[in-house]
Amino acid sequence: MAFNFNWSPLIADTSRAREMLTIALNKSPKPPIIVDDIIVTELNLGSTPPELEILEIGDLAEDRFRGIFKMSYTGDAFLTLKTKVQANPLNTLLSTKPDFASPQPLAAASGLTIPLQITLSDIRLSGFVILVFSKQKGLTLVFRNDPLESLKVSSTFDSIPFVRDYLQKEIEGQLRVLFMEDLPAIIHRLSLRLWSEEYQELETEQRLDGSKDTTAPIDPLSTPPQDAVDAFGNPLDEDQIAALSLDPASEVHASFSQKNILRLAALSESQRTLSLFTPSIREAVFRAWANNSDRADSGSNTPALTLSSLSRIQSTFGSIKSNTSSVASGSTGNDTQATRPSLVSAYSGPAGLSLSANRSRTHPMRKRKKRVVNLRKDGTESSGVSTDATNTPFPSTNVSETASVIPEEREGEEEPTTPPRSPTKAAGGGLRFEGKHGSLDVGEPGRVVEKAAPGGLLPAAPLLEEAPKLSKSKHTQKSQSGVFENESKRSRPPLSSNRLRTAQQTTSPLLRSLSFDKVSSISSGSKIPLSPRSSEDGTASTGGILEQAWMLKMAHEIARKVQEEKEKEAVGQDPDTPTRRPRPRPQTSKSAGMLPRGGLWTDEEVDAPPAYVA
Amino acid sequence: MLDFMDHVQNAFYEASHWNLDNSYGALNATAKALLDFRTPRGLRLQISSLAAPNFATSYTIGSVGVVDGSVSYLYSSLPLLRPFKSADLDLHHVIRGYRHLQELRRPDEAWWWEVWHCGKRIDRRDTLLYGRIFLPRSTLEALYLRRLSPTRQLKISAVSDSTLNNGGTILALLQNDVGKYSTEYMYSTDSALMGVRGLYNFGPDPRVGSTSPVAAHEITEPVQGRFSAGAELYYGLLNKSGGISTGLRFTTLPNHTGFPYTMTLTLNPLMGNLSSTYAVKAGPNLALCSRFDFNFYSYESELQLGCELWRRRRNTDVEWAVKRLRPDWKRPTVAPDDDVSGILKARVDQDWRIGLLWEGRIKELLFTLGASLDLKRREQIFRTVGVELQYSS
């Protein structure tokens, strides 16, 4: 992936920037020696663009971007200011002193204002820049530290060392203020103007698109009430379930109740708006609480990731969390998302402590902006060293694979919601390692799945029973496994339900973006279990993309049938809970189906079967 | 309008025979009074009293966005007998306008001040102590004034304020005035600023005038005006910067038969600033002033015009009777300026910045209404508006 920074248009027209700089410079109170407005007469950004090193990209889509850069600039930009200064030192001295004890000279303090021209050149900048861009909200650029390293001030008074030093000092001080406070505002305003004026039509179009996008995710959610099942015991939902239970397909998808969906929406909204209010959601566990499980997840995820298709799905899910409205075409979107984690991981992994420290610094900002998902992320990231330690085996063992594999892992860590994560991971560190190894060893996705699945699945079940809390993090579990609920209803089910919902909500737009190939691949074979959920969401959400939706539907159908078959088997096994039925079926069916095939996806669903057994 | 405490200090100078006008710093006092008057801002109330002839207190409360105030005390070793009640004080004492300079007075002989009692000299130097604290800001002003001799005065003023460098500043000023000339030496702790000022009055020396025999032609031709020249020099030891200026003044004396006028010319050779003022007292109630500044380095110029108008009540009912009165018949009046309804001061410069001041007395209250306008800024013509009220007993 590459970014194309176009420097030349910035050079072309600086009149507006000059105006804004002028305003900004005159805003703050000026030292008494400056007796007139400061006017920016010349601004040249030079031909040498600043060097940007991408440290982290937190959000990426066609119409939005959030990232952290390391910027260093040693170009030939220069800035010429014009103002008037008071040349009489007595005047400036006495102007700041109280009259009472002033000598009150008759005319010795009379002013002499001299026009002054200052040229700032040889500007050396280096610092960390946080860049947030969205077409609707414009461009926000913030310096995390004081970027000004050095600068050369040449003025009309260069021959007088006293004045020269004074000017140098004063101007550096002012510039620091400018960079830290005023420049972000200027850039933001400039970007807003740009997009509001020239791109207004575009913007409106995009708004329309945006509205579609927003509606799309809602659709899948709205459908589930029709399907009608809340996995965790809302009576209304259960009734619906009973009514709808005839249709197995519906059961698979509908693990959400309208109420909970609304609550989740409120929750995500509150996260988005920085409000401290978090709606209480029954039987829900927030990621921020589940650090242990997170790690486990990261470990366990890796095997799934090895499959290219799977990884894509995963990445899409992850991106969903970050709420990128995937405007990009399916393929590009997937790629970018996949790349995102890789960047992060590459950065954090090899960079060492200093980098990680940096990263942790940046997190708070991110946290604010992101939703629930982020909380967990932060937690894991902040304890970046520990997570790295767990990860390390991968890179070290399989260096060649690192590029592809590691990023995936990262994603898993950062975004626990990703579907591929299975209870097994949560269950124990040992499991996840196994999973990792398996995935790592196997060059081909198919094999990996097979290998990983048996290892992870079998051990996972007992672990889950023993420590259900650990497994909370997996959303997939609860929907899949009714057994789990029985065992640990309070903790686990809430987590899973929440996650599922969030995942579904978020995922739907992403799924849309998936290209046909992926969908088909997902639906076929081992991937089927995953696909039903995601695909359903996708269908609902897609709206515009009928074909894809249809494909997804088809995939679901296939998956459903497979599940049904397996379900029958599963039902026979556990007669305990009547309510379970709808849920267990998918799980069991999935797990059963999956296991033989040994798909990676089994990780998620695979867990369920062991639970059943237990 | 002068602050009460400034008024008291002026009374002290008068009582101790110190000529404030005979100083280079007061060279263009007239122009300053007519052109550089301060326009009040916000609302300000001052209640003050001269509780005893030697002791004065004053309380000020003001509101410019926030409420602030000040408390001040003054002690004078010299009893001050001027009327200070706001009801009957002389408005000319508190409203500075055209300064009509008087003949130079011959300084007191040193032995005039001597007081002997039982073979011992018991006289003391006249001293004035003054302190003022501004409350929310915790700024303290202090003044110590001592007449060292009939021709010498020491003035130490200090400001303590946490916002200043070193927490405050002190200015020591030693003034000598022998009538014919006056010199001042000063030192300010602020950047160790040192300064010298001197003023020389051409013309007869008041010290020798009375004793030496007067030539016949001099009697026939009384002195109608005075020409003065002066200079000042400052140098800051710490910041190695200084300032210099020279000035000339010609002013008419009471002997002058025409209308009084004052002309000054000051020059700052370092900064190339040339300033000339011309003030004229066109009548008992009207004074006009103009000032032209020019800088021959930057070619910047500035023109200011100002006027002072004393508005008196016309009692048309008795106007005709007054006119018929014999000129030597004096009507008894409660206060010297009882018929003054107000004094208008106005100034305008070439940028159409206007300052207006309306001062006067209502019953026993002294009031000052002021506004400064900027006609070039259409969106905000009124820069400041203010009212000040003073009451003293």
From TrEMBL, chain A:
Q: Which domain of life is it from?
A: Eukaryota
How is this protein named in the record?
A: Uncharacterized protein
Q: Which organism is it from?
A: Lindgomyces ingoldianus
The lineage, from the top, is:
Eukaryota, Fungi, Dikarya, Ascomycota, Pezizomycotina
Automatic annotation (TrEMBL), chain B:
Q: Which domain of life is it from?
A: Eukaryota
Question: What is the name of this protein?
Answer: Mitochondrial distribution and morphology protein 10
Species of the source: Lindgomyces ingoldianus
